[in-house]
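Please decode residue identities from the backbone states below.
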């Protein structure tokens, strides 16, 4: 287990050093070719001279690499290469020396090229960073340095420009390309009042942005600071090579010494060193790990260095914060309840009409829910925000209040029922008050991320043995989330210091990952072997303390990162061990005189090429890690996900009809059931049939065949059965002049059962199917 939390930045190499590898390749190639020409021209002395010069040209850089490793406290694997180069000169095997020199030069050049290719996406982040902003003033628009932009500034983002700071859209709509942060190439629209993160590109016309953060506190600034330290750093990947070199280096020297001692031939010892030149160690690990860094960055996962990726591939324990990590981090409307005589839709519309002027997080959730349902909000007048209580304003001539009501001696029965339900569901309550009387309530809760269950299943499949929650939230809601997700343990009501203690306790047993998104998570992220920050919403202290930042607000990217890390490490180990085993076999042949130094050098070159090609497999997409959707299936997912939002009022109506049937059995209750049945037949059932006939067949190939959707199809059947049963009850009521007493229990059961089945079915589809799409 690596307990060293130091993260030294690698100094920038001088330009001359960057040119060393290609220059060395040119020199050694020229020397080898010139020697070959001289040998063919029957000038062996001249050929040996060229080959010796090529060998000598490589000794200096190789010695430099060894000295650099020794300064870092390591006996670098380049030691064997230096001994082999010197040995060929000493025994006069000049062609073998030239081949080793070329092998070493090309290997280093390939490593540099792989690092450059793998770090391209990270460098692109730095090049993408904005430097200035266009601020609207009373006299026009002025361009100012980005550091001068402050919270509250009205900025203009022109077509093709990068959004400079986090903010809200002040124009009607903004068309954005968010691929730099999310890895997703699709354009998105952000409407008036919606949040925009810095770093995304304006793909439409110019729009106005109200700044909500300074440059330093914006999303992109934190990512850039991390990217400056990220990339293909040499130290972490050399650790993997040095672990193998700890036994490979003395083994090579022992075999070479024994070959010389038993045969009396120094040539055999040199031949052993030639084939033992550890390019599989020098190349396999770095190429595989930096290739993994490249793959991760393209998915919106910025990894600080190769050491973090290597450790992630060894992790066995995962600790997760709850709010903003397992949950969305933003409250959403769970349900809307209306007092007798009002409809839930009207309660939500009135509440949102007042709350559209409030900055409170619950107010924003209410407004978002109203807009998602396509409601036309009224203009509220004389709006007053009362701290700690809510907002009050005049809407359509009536005084409307939203928030916490003033204490009253007696609450109506429906209000007491709402309070009980909020307690049972762990929900927050925003009351609607009309003309000083309670008229409805909105229940809000921070919902579980739809992709969380699938992500945690994939993490267990990838090799994570323990999943634990560390949260400062209350025990009851934390245990409810843990039960849904199947977590192994829950530690609730923790402060930052207690989270750190829990992390230290887990690190005693296994390599540990901590995932969080808040400032209070930063100490725990720093204490873990690998800290992962949900950094999509701003540059918090958690992003600064993390080894890995998920730049897109998707938890499933964590499972992708673990899969990439494990695959990259597996390929690195496979390439290194495979190359060394082939080298050991060649060493045995050289020790008994079957492999001359020149032939051994050619063989070693072939081994190097094989391990490099194998290590580059880490750049390829692992098709088994995530189901691949067709464009048609992805479009269908987005369509039906939007329909789920639109159908929430139908689910509310089903429950409301059941509640009303419990209160009264008269004409009003019958009318509510009639209206619910109309909604079912006109809107809900067509949606379910379209899913069955269009969505499920489109998803079947991705999920492994029609059987994968069989359980969900059975839910469709149950929804249709309950709807038909409700229709039969209504036919009996029409023919009998009203609902008969013997019908009530079964009809209530049908309505409550349908409400339960629908909510469970919607949740399952959102978790299992809709979370597949970006």
């Amino acid at each position: 287990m690596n307990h060293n939390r130091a993260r030294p930045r690698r100094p920038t190499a001088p330009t001359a050093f960057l040119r060393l590898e290609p220059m060395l390749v040119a020199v050694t190639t020229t020397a080898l070719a010139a020697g070959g020409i001289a040998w063919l021209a029957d000038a062996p002395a001249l050929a040996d001279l060229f080959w010796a010069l090529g060998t000598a040209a490589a000794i200096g850089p190789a010695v430099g690499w060894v000295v650099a490793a020794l300064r870092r406290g390591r006996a670098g694997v380049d030691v064997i290469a230096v001994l082999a180069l010197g040995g060929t000169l000493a025994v006069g095997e000049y062609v073998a020396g030239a081949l080793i020199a070329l092998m070493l030069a090309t290997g280093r050049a390939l490593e540099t090229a792989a690092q450059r290719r793998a770090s391209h996406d990270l460098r692109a982040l730095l090049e993408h960073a904005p430097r200035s902003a266009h601020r609207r003033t009373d006299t026009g628009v002025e361009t100012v340095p980005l550091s001068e932009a402050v919270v509250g500034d009205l900025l203009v983002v022109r077509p093709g420009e990068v959004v400079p700071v986090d903010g809200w859209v002040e124009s009607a709509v903004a068309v954005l390309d968010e691929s730099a942060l999310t890895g997703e190439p699709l354009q998105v629209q952000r409407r008036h009042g919606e949040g925009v993160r810095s770093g995304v590109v304006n793909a439409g016309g110019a729009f106005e942005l109200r700044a909500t953060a300074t440059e330093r506190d914006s999303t992109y600034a934190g990512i850039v600071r991390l990217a400056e330290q990220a990339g293909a750093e040499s130290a972490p990947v050399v650790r993997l090579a040095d672990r193998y070199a700890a036994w490979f280096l003395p083994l090579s020297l022992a075999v070479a010494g024994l070959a010389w001692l038993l045969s009396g031939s120094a040539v055999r010892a040199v031949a052993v060193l030639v084939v033992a030149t550890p390019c599989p160690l020098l190349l396999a690990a770095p190429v595989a790990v930096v290739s993994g860094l490249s793959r991760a960055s393209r998915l919106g996962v910025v990894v600080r260095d190769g050491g973090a990726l290597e450790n992630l591939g060894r992790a066995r324990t995962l600790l997760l914060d709850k709010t903003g990590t397992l949950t969305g981090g933003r409250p959403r409307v769970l349900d809307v309840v209306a007092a007798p005589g009002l409809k839930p839709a009207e309660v939500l519309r009135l509440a949102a009409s007042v709350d559209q002027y409030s900055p409170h997080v619950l107010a924003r959730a209410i407004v978002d829910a109203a807009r998602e349902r396509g409601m036309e909000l009224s203009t509220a007048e004389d709006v007053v925000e009362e701290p700690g209580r809510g907002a009050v304003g005049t809407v359509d001539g009536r005084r409307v209040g939203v928030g916490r009501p003033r204490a009253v001696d007696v609450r109506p029965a429906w209000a007491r029922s709402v309070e009980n339900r909020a307690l049972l569901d762990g929900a927050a309550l925003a009351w609607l008050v009309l003309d000083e009387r309670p008229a409805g309530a909105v229940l809000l809760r921070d919902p579980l991320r739809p992709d969380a269950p699938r992500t945690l299943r994939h993490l267990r499949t990838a090799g994570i043995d323990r999943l634990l929650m560390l949260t400062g939230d209350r025990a009851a809601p934390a245990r409810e989330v843990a039960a849904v997700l199947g977590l192994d343990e829950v530690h609730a009501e923790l402060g930052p210091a207690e989270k750190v203690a829990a992390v230290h306790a887990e690190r005693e047993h296994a390599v540990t990952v901590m995932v969080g998104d808040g400032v209070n998570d930063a100490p725990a992220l720093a204490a873990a072997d690998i800290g992962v920050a949900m950094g999509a919403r701003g540059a918090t202290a958690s992003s600064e303390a993390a080894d890995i930042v998920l730049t897109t607000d998707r938890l499933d990217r964590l499972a992708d990162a673990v899969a990439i890390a494990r695959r990259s490490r597996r390929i690195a180990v496979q390439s290194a061990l495979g190359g060394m085993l082939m080298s050991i076999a060649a060493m045995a042949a050289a020790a008994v005189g079957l492999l001359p130094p020149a032939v051994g050098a050619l063989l070693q070159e072939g081994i190097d090429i094989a391990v490099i090609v194998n290590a580059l497999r880490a750049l390829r997409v692992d098709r088994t890690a995530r189901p691949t959707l067709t464009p048609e299936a992805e479009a269908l997912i987005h369509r039906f996900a939007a329909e789920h939002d639109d159908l929430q009022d139908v689910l509310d109506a089903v429950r409301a009809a059941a509640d009303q049937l419990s209160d009264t059995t008269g004409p009003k209750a019958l009318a509510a059931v009639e209206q619910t049945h109309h909604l079912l037949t006109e809107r809900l059932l067509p949606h379910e049939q379209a899913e069955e006939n269009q969505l499920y067949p489109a998803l079947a190939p991705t999920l492994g065949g029609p059987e994968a959707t069989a359980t969900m199809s059975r839910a469709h059947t149950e929804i249709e059965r309950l709807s038909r049963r409700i229709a039969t009850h209504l036919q009996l009521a029409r023919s009998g002049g009203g609902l008969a007493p013997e019908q009530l229990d079964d009809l209530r059961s049908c309505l409550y059962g349908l409400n339960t089945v629908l909510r469970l079915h919607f949740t399952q589809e959102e978790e299992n199917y809709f979370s597949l799409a970006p």
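Observation: The longest strand covers residues 437-445.
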